[in-house]
Amino acid sequence: MGGKSGPSNNQMVQFEMQQAQEAKAKENKRQARLDQGKAAIDSLFGKENFGDNFYDKYRVNELNYSLPQLHQQYDTAKNAMTYDLARAGTLRSTAAGYAQALLEGQNAVNEGGIRAKADTDTAALRNSIASQQQQAYNQLYATEDPTVAANTAANSVANAQLTQPNTGALGDLFKPIAIGLGSAIAPAYGAQQANAYLNAPSGRQQGSQTNTA
Hints:
Elements: H1 9-44, H2 47-50, H3 52-87, H4 94-143, H5 146-161, H6 186-199
Helix pairs in contact: 1-4, 1-5, 3-4, 3-6, 4-5
């Protein structure tokens, strides 16, 4: 009885080995593409573009916008308080020292809040950029195309580098400090005293404090 015989065991083994080699070569090429894309993404999102200097600059820019507004409001509040103290005839009194302490306390709290916000905003920027890097990874693994992933990452990096702090006019940061009148003649006399005090050189303003950033 004649007939065609099936493939030999050796042929089957050789075929399976060839299939395994082809699969391995294909996986090696795939992994090489992923490694290439990941290296490009890591470089774009690395310290050269997003090191500590980048985040420090962002934080300082926010403070440089907000702190001068705080200082201006502090000066305005201090001048108003000084004038009210003079009108009340209590410019050199214990009450004046207490009012000054209240004002300084408000100033410290306000500055602490501004600095804390700058830290929070900077941390949020770090998280945003880390999220964009992860998105670039996700695109790379989905497409397995390192060129597309790198180009998308480059666009994200370019936009992120232009990020500026959210700036806007600060609201009223200082609450008015109530100053009572010491006597019936205090208003007329105190107004002259206040004007002289506020217009005098800083060295002649006894009890004044220098506002430092």
